[in-house]
Design goal:
Order of helices and strands: EHHEHEHEEHEHHEHEHH
Helix content: 40-55%
Mean pLDDT: 92
Number of helices: 10
Distance between the termini: 49 Å
Radius of gyration: 19 Å
Number of strands: 8
Shape: globular
Strand content: 5-15%
Largest sheet: 6 strands, parallel
Strand order of the largest sheet: 1-8-7-2-3-6
Length: about 260
């Protein structure tokens, strides 16, 4: 079994390693041939910094990703899986519905913007906020307000065409051998369900790639280690302009008491 400590590259190491691998045209060609029709075209002409979320949101965690992706000389790209199912046990998906904000008096607040029990097991595109707005539209609109020049790509069809998660994650991680850097944090201790996913899908895919090609995918840890509760809240909350927008939205729709 792979040692979790060996998954991640430092930012500086990732930048240098990608520079070498991207300039190795033979390696890039080899990976593209290996992927065949499963090669994601967005990786073709530019080295990519990738954040994959079922539904991204421009919170402080995204801002951190964006800055890191620029630092390592990549073009940031957000991958979405909008056909994914909503399950409240997943903290990322639950966080899209329970919005973290800071009030003027300094109080930190969680706004329950979705009745999650109504949408358990539904596709993300079917999830509605209590205001009646689609959850997907709400978070996409936040990006417009934030004004980030960021590209999006929904890879639902790509995943579905390949099939099972263990198959498409292997194909996905192949893109980070020579074409980009993945910014991610794989849980392998805190959550039993995520621990199973990491140990049975992520780690075997990384091991297989290293065994077959002699190189690990370039992965940078998305968040620093040993986060405090306050720091964790920060990553889920939003920059000031979006924080104020969400508070006003919540008041307008009677979501904030």
């Amino acid at each position: 079994m792979i040692d979790p400590k060996d998954i991640y590259f430092s930012l500086d190491d990732a930048r240098e390693e990608l520079r070498k691998r991207w300039n190795n045209l033979e390696l890039r060609k080899k990976m593209e041939e290996e992927l065949g029709e499963n090669f994601i075209a967005d990786f073709k002409n530019n080295a990519r910094g990738i954040l994959w979320r079922s539904l991204p949101s421009p919170d402080n965690g995204f801002t951190f990703f964006y800055q890191m992706a620029k630092y390592v000389n990549t073009n940031p790209l957000l991958l979405e899986y909008l056909g994914d199912k909503f399950v409240s046990i997943n903290e990322e998906k639950k966080g899209l519905c329970t919005l973290s904000v800071s009030l003027k008096n300094g109080e930190r607040k969680k706004i329950n913007a979705v009745d999650i029990n109504l949408f358990e097991g539904k596709k993300l595109g079917e999830v509605l906020m209590k205001s009646g707005e689609k959850l997907i539209n709400f978070h996409h609109n936040l990006f417009k307000i934030a004004g980030y020049p960021i590209e999006f790509r929904d890879i639902t069809n790509w995943c579905n065409n390949i099939g099972k998660a263990k198959d498409y994650y292997y194909q996905y991680l192949l893109h980070f051998v020579a074409h980009g850097i993945l910014f991610e944090f794989f849980l392998f201790e805190e959550d039993e369900r995520e621990n199973y996913f990491t140990n049975n899908i992520i780690f075997p895919a990384i091991e297989k790639i290293e065994k077959e090609f002699g190189l690990k995918p370039i992965v940078v840890r998305l968040y620093p280690k040993d986060q405090t509760e306050e720091e964790d809240f920060y990553w889920w909350s939003y920059p000031p302009n979006l924080n104020d927008y969400i508070i006003n939205y919540a008041k307008k729709n009677f979501l904030l008491k």
